[in-house]
């Protein structure tokens, strides 16, 4: 098998991570740059070109051995046409034909997708969902990102908004969400919601890392914080399980660092809500690839798009 | 195009409906028999043979012009192998290899699927979801049946339990459901739940048809019954919309006869919960094929399985 190289780029609001990987997902070089100035499209394009040169040089790979690039972005993307549908973190990129624009700057094809989709693809091919044809992947952080692998492929849906589990309503009324909905899961288990839950239960501000640490040691109030979050999460996850029957649910993101303090009550709650026929069949596990999942998935996207399986 | 004929059978707990249709879904003859005695497998097989002969004779079609038969059943089915996974209405059929068994009795191939999947297939090809590659179909009755059309095909999932929207939890605790879960949608909007909601609101027993009639005339209590049911339904439907982005949601079954008394508040509630990008894009409509959807879908399943598109 001829060696092929791909570049995976994970564009975040603050930092952008990139790596050069081979077709098996092995990382040969990696780099992190500031996302500042990316609202200037030319600057972004030149940065990608520059990153590619540097990644190739670092890995002692010739620039023309790079077959394709994948770019993950924090917003919905029409991945067929390579158009960013909306992006809140970087100004002026709504409805921007990124893949087409980059053609002028880069000698290899560029494929674009949502970052949660990239993360799910990486976990599906190399991580915690490996071997499962059907998987739900969540990233718990400031927001609640989600993506679905159905029949071994990213599910994008007709409007390229597939997998947005963070916007499943879990309350008939409930608070208004940025997405335009009300009562969304994200408003109950996002970073801020958990922090204010901790504040309510402890009667003072306690950092989430501390809440996790205390919960692991058996501290009742700390456990209550995670139990409440787990109860909310379980409703949406069990809803997806009963409707789509994924074989595995992968939980990633900063909030997942709570570990068993969150996963323990989450598994119990999901088992309560899941249909009898599914109770024992769906594993709920932590993500395996951490912060690398974004660029790895972007690189795998590029690989699979050009058909180099 | 050579004319081909298919038999669609919709096995219910009380009655079984069957029809002879052509590849376009045109009905040439139809029949209804009692489902009594179907726990005796030989009797069921002979009945299907007898039905086929009669349907052919009624339509003046030769028996050997029948290309295939589709059978819809009220329970989960491994439609690839033709195995009934579980069935509560007919005894002794759990894990029964129905398609294999019927080979001895019928000269044409038989394909088996869940009845909600058949209904969704019919609505997708000939009914209210025609033209939509992504659709959610619900049947509101004693239970809440559901099925998904994703990328123009029935979504079955790895465990053949796809689309069970009636078992999405809408409450963290809530009543225990027959499925083994708790707080399932079905427990809030099934026939009995709506009837007891009406009893609570009216202070006496009122038949659902009457509640619908009063609601259409503007009766406040009657409207409240449907508004509450709509609020529950909207949570699950909006959850599916935000995660899968179907282009159309089709509502069928006896409870859907409430018509605009239910659909009006349902559309408003779903619009509140749906993401901004999806609010205007998803139509919520009544099923178009009524009670015929079951056998039509079963016949279409058979047609599509043998590849006569």
Automatic annotation (TrEMBL), chains A, B:
<protein>
    <recommendedName>
        <fullName>Glucokinase</fullName>
    </recommendedName>
</protein>
<dbReference type="Pfam" id="PF00480">
    <property type="entry name" value="ROK"/>
</dbReference>
<dbReference type="InterPro" id="IPR043129">
    <property type="entry name" value="ATPase_NBD"/>
</dbReference>
<dbReference type="InterPro" id="IPR000600">
    <property type="entry name" value="ROK"/>
</dbReference>
<comment type="similarity">
    <text>Belongs to the ROK (NagC/XylR) family.</text>
</comment>
<dbReference type="InterPro" id="IPR049874">
    <property type="entry name" value="ROK_cs"/>
</dbReference>
